[in-house]
Amino acid sequence: MKNLFQNRAVGFWLDLAGTVLALVGIILYALYAADTGSSNVWVYIGLVAAVAAGAAGLVTDNDLLAIAAPALSAVSLCAFITDSVYTFVGYFFGLAMFGDVSKIGAIMRICVVVAISMLTLLISSFMRKDKAM
Known about the structure:
By secondary structure, the protein is mainly alpha-helical. The protein is built from 6 helices and no strands. The protein is elongated and about 55 Å long.
């Protein structure tokens, strides 16, 4: 275990942070889905696959995993925003037709966590994971 964290560069730590944030995004979305009674399977698939790709990218040096993790996180973010568009419209324009405006705080939390996860995974894909010897 000590060898896993020894001689690691900033890219490794950003990848680890993005993976943990994607895992937090799964938990936040599961709580939101249980509260509202509706869920989108693509949000779960994208975030679980992003966590798996991010975790695999921590131990291996694979360009496909470096691309897959932020891309899958972006897929889940887009799927969630698409499902929440009526709530955004209701909140910003004061219309109470389709979306539940009382859930805007939870929606914004999920969007911010998943967006930061996507950005950290994207930035880490351009950086070195190991320090130069």
